[in-house]
Amino acid sequence: MKFGIVGCGGRMGRLLMKLILEGGGHAIAGGTEREGSPLIGQDLGTLAGCAPIGIAAQADARAAFADADALIDFTTPATARATARLAAETGTPAVIGTTGLSPEDLAEIRACAAKAAILQSFNMSLGVNLLAALVKNAAAALPAEAFDIEIVEMHHKHKVDAPSGTAILLGEAAAEGRSVALAEVTQSGRHGHTGERRMGDIGFAALRGGDVVGEHTVILAGAGERIELTHRATARSIFATGGLRAAAWLAGKKPGLYAMTDVLGM
């Protein structure tokens, strides 16, 4: 299969291309960078730290991805929306692993999925998505009046959004397990005299520092006992590997909005 890499000069873009070139099972259809980027015109193989492949980074996504079987986007919310629109216009499947998406971003992606197969996930890690399934089951099994749910996440100091997309994914899983809307029970950024914790709330705490790839812990705290479900990412490659697996799975699928749980058959 031939994959189109959106943001080919970024950390994830370069890693995706490196895995494709070294894996031998797939190929790169093209790669894009923003208009005016100094990376425009550079060979994609060179950007990935591999031998040149004769394909240069360009700003015109429609031209770059003309032969792509699927697009992969780990960039920014604005670019992710543009990728979703391109997918809808051309019918090309797209994997969107961008974090920091707003409700408006998600709504547009969902609308575009009516015309193309789009897989959107805040975390492409297989382990994280298994964790989400465990969290959903635990939240459903333990009554809200007896167990409080808190989600603690830590990332490197350069991360710009909080709570992380993965923390939100886990929060959604917990809320789904309790049959409530996450927006109605979210509690984050506690400061000062907050009063007692409201029963049924799902709390979020975000830590930032150093070069932490990603750590997430879901705490279910009851009287006299506490359950902690944790995932620690130690290499960024797990997200790229999951993204490639998702893109290979998505190709040929009917229009619709998919998730990593679909890829995993969960």
How would you characterize the overall build of this protein?
The protein has helices at residues 11-23, 44-47, 61-64, 77-90, 103-112, 126-141, 165-177, 182-185, 237-250, 260-264; strands spanning 2-6, 27-32, 70-73, 94-96, 117-120, 147-155, 186-188, 202-208, 214-222, 225-233, 256-258. Helix 1 crosses helix 9 and helix 6 (126-141) runs parallel beside helix 7. It contains ten helices and eleven strands. It folds into two domains: 2-120 and 237-264, NAD(P)-binding Rossmann-like Domain (Rossmann fold, 3-Layer(aba) Sandwich), CATH 3.40.50.720; 126-233, 2-Layer Sandwich (Dihydrodipicolinate Reductase, domain 2). Helix 5 links the parallel strand 4 (94-96) and strand 5. The protein has a six-stranded parallel β-sheet with strand order 2-1-3-4-5-11, with helices on both faces. With 266 residues, it is of the alpha/beta class. The model has no long low-confidence stretch (mean pLDDT 95). The longest helix is centred in the middle third of the chain and has 16 residues, at 126-141.
